[in-house]
Amino acid sequence: MKFVNNEKAFTMIEMMIVLLVISVLILIALPNVTKNSKTIDEKGCDAYVKMVQGQVEAYKLDKKSLPTSIQQLSDDQYVPEDAQCPDGRALTIVDGKVDVSS
């Protein structure tokens, strides 16, 4: 009986090495993804605050007074009713400046 050694296939050890390499790559990538998610939320909130601040200025030009709350801007349809940061933090207006509640 003659055995052929020219078969082209992965051995069990080669498959385990490939799985090990893939696992290491996943372990390296996951912390970066979660860290970037927090940065994205912060930048999204900063951008939303700037947009609402622009709406405060538009309200000031239209009504000749500053709004006292986000609800007032919402009632006059300058911002949506659920005006809050993408991460769920509420916005407040104090002396015409928009800020994020902690």
Q: In one word, what is the shape?
A: rod-shaped
Which structural class do the helices and strands define?
mainly alpha
Task: Let me know the number of strands.
Answer: 2
What percent strand? 5-15%
User: H/E element string?
Assistant: HHEE
Task: Describe the sheet with the most strands.
Answer: 2 strands, antiparallel
- Output mean pLDDT: 87
Number of domains: 1
What topology emerges from the helices and strands here?
Elements lengths: L11 H52 L6 H6 L15 E4 L2 E4 L2
Antiparallel strand pairs: 1-2
Can you put this structure into words, describing what you see?
This protein has helices spanning 12-63, 70-75, and strands spanning 91-94, 97-100. The protein is mostly helical and 102 residues long. The protein has one domain (12-100). The chain has a two-stranded antiparallel ribbon with strand order 1-2. The longest helix has 52 residues, at 12-63. The protein starts with 11 loop residues before the first helix and ends with a strand.
Condensed summary:
The chain has about 100 residues and is mostly helical. It is about 55% helix and about 10% strand.
Which features would summarize this protein structure in a list?
2 strands; 102 residues; single chain; mainly alpha
